[in-house]
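Standup notes, structure subgroup. Blocker cleared on the iron/sulfur cluster input:
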Amino acid sequence: QMLSGALINGKELFKRIVDSLPSALEKRGFKSVKDAIDSGERQKESFEVRNPVIDHDKCTRCGLCVAVCPYFALSMDEKVEVDAAECFGCGLCESRCPVGAIGGVLI
Ligand code: SF4
Ligand code: SF4
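Run returned:
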């Protein structure tokens, strides 16, 4: 997630995370990262996975999305297919498609 986040949003993402960490910890009542880890608290908000939708009319079958998917959720035979059970909704495929043939993941 950290890798695909940086690939999509740029490596400045890491600086934003580091810069916002002290206030995020304070807001949740933690004194340190270790304090947060030791608490065993998990993120309460649920993460809704959005699977990519392929526009097969636009798709040039370049194969880039299949190559970059870190979860091996895409395959291509006659056309690009999405394995919804494997897709984590990271959005990397959508961000990398050179012709904008993928939608539905990134907001
Ligand atoms: S990256 Fe885009 S154009 Fe290339 S195969 Fe995937 S959907 Fe098609
Ligand atoms: S959203 Fe991420 S996990 Fe899902 S198919 Fe695209 S690259 Fe793979």
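Discussed briefly. The helical segments are 2-9, 12-27, 33-39, 64-68, 92-96.
Next: hand off to the docking folks.
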